[in-house]
């Protein structure tokens, strides 16, 4: 512009007083407030005071909020007993790295080696049980116990399904820990729930119960050697632990939803907290996503487990009903224990999922509908309406990879189907003649021919 020598330069170009230094309009505009009267240097800014937390554990809270520190998760502390047990059993090769959960190569190798060892032992036992079934004499109900020994070995496929879904399990655990961190940063306090020693006690009880049920079943129904019972105990413990893990996940989600709903109701009673509605809505959206992901992470494993429990219940009940006319014996104790334990496990799986879904959706909707809107401003009322619509539009049912929803209706449907199969089996039993019936004499009396 000023390259022409004949063009006069503006005032200030000769002494460089016209040049504007590089400044930041966002930060340098407020520098005059940090300058003294006689100095052009910037003074030090006082540090920001630490936040005032609602609880007394300030030091622990600072550690949980700091990204560089090791996070202490209340949720993971409640999951840890069942988490470690599943990893030792070779069905969850997941480790924790800070605030995330990843698949560990070391534990994958351990899981496959354990699976191969158990599968080799089961191959021998399966061949042995097939021979027992073939030598069983009498009607079909007398061989039910022998068939059950083969059925008890079927859940070994759960290991393969669990390893396939291990990555989903790791993602769910990461999301749950992230939810806790978001809650902590948002409300400056720890999440207000703790199951206490319940997860640890339940894990120990399930281990003892899984082994005890199988030992009693075998020693009351067959003359098995002790070392042959070990794979059966391992497989039965796996089924119990997977059901226990599902129960713990659902219980944690239900308790979190209940705690969050109570805090939401308390916050809306105070006008100063009415602007927190959007925060609770965001947390609820995350929680509804977690409950759906929990169902998907157990999709194939729990589907297989429910079908297995249904089949075991049907066989054991049929065996017990078949023995009524011949008199109850010692071997019926094993059938009774197996049937009762399988029925209780199936019930708790369905009931706890129903409880978690109800807490996340229905319980929150009740709290929202009881909100007094008269003292709230228009923005808060709009947030309440959006929150209520979100609870209606977002599904909170625990669906197993789209196959079926796990709730109390599933338990009732399985029982109704079981009754239908029992009626068919009992009709088949009636049509078979008893072993004490007289056999028709097929010999013909031949008379000697008269001589001609």
From TrEMBL:
Transmembrane segments: 107-127, 147-166, 199-219, 225-249, 298-321, 333-350, 414-432
UniProt-annotated location(s): Cell membrane
GO BP annotation list: sensory perception of taste; signal transduction
Family, per entry: Belongs to the insect chemoreceptor superfamily. Gustatory receptor (GR) family.
Superkingdom assignment: Eukaryota
KW Transmembrane (keyword) present: yes
Membrane topology (UniProt): Multi-pass membrane protein
Pfam families assigned: 7tm_7 (PF08395)
Protein name in UniProt: Gustatory receptor
Matches recorded under InterPro entries: 7TM_chemorcpt (IPR013604)
Keywords in alphabetical order: Cell membrane, Membrane, Receptor, Transducer, Transmembrane, Transmembrane helix
GO terms for cellular component: axon; dendrite; neuronal cell body; plasma membrane
Function: Gustatory receptor which mediates acceptance or avoidance behavior, depending on its substrates.
């Amino acid at each position: 512009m000023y390259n022409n020598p004949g063009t006069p330069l503006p005032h200030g170009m000769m002494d460089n007083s016209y040049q504007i230094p590089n400044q930041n309009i966002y930060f340098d505009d407020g520098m005059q407030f940090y300058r003294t009267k006689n100095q052009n240097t910037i003074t030090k800014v006082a540090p920001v005071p630490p936040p005032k937390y609602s609880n007394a554990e300030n030091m622990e809270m600072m550690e949980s909020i700091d990204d560089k520190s090791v996070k202490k998760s209340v949720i993971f502390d409640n999951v840890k007993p069942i988490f470690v047990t599943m990893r030792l059993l070779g069905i969850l090769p997941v480790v924790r790295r800070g605030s995330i959960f990843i698949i560990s190569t070391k534990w994958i190798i351990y899981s496959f080696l354990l699976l191969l060892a158990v599968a080799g032992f089961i191959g021998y036992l399966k061949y042995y049980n097939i021979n027992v079934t073939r030598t069983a004499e009498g009607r079909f109900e007398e061989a039910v116990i022998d068939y059950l020994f083969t059925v008890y070995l079927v859940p070994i496929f759960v290991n393969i399904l669990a390893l396939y879904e291990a990555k989903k399990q790791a993602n769910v655990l990461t999301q749950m820990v992230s939810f806790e961190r978001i809650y902590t940063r948002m409300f400056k306090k720890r999440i207000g729930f703790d199951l206490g020693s319940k997860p640890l006690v339940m894990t120990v009880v399930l281990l003892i119960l899984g082994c005890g049920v199988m030992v009693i079943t075998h020693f009351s129904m067959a003359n098995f050697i002790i070392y042959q019972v070990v794979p059966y105990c391992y497989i039965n413990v796996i089924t119990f632990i997977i059901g226990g893990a599902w129960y713990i996940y659902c219980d944690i989600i239900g308790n979190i939803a209940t705690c969050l709903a109570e805090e939401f109701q308390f916050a809306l009673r105070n006008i100063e907290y009415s602007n927190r509605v959007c925060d609770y809505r965001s947390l609820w959206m995350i929680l509804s996503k977690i409950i759906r992901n929990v169902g998907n992470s157990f999709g194939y494993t729990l589907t297989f487990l429910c079908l297995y429990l249904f089949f075991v219940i049907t066989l054991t009940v049929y065996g017990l009903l078949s023995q009524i006319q011949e008199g109850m014996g010692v071997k019926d104790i094993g059938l009774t224990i197996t049937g009762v334990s399988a029925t209780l496990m199936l019930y708790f799986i369905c009931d706890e999922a129903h409880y978690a879904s109800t807490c996340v959706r229905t319980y929150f909707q009740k709290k929202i509908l009881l909100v007094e809107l008269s003292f709230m401003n228009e923005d808060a009322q709009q947030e309440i309406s959006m929150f209520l619509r979100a609870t209606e539009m977002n599904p909170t049912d625990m669906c197993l990879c789209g196959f079926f929803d796990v709730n109390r209706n599933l338990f009732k449907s399985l029982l109704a189907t079981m009754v239908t199969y029992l009626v068919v089996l009992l009709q088949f039993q009636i049509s078979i003649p008893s072993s004490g019936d007289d056999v028709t004499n097929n010999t013909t009396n031949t008379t000697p021919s008269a001589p001609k």
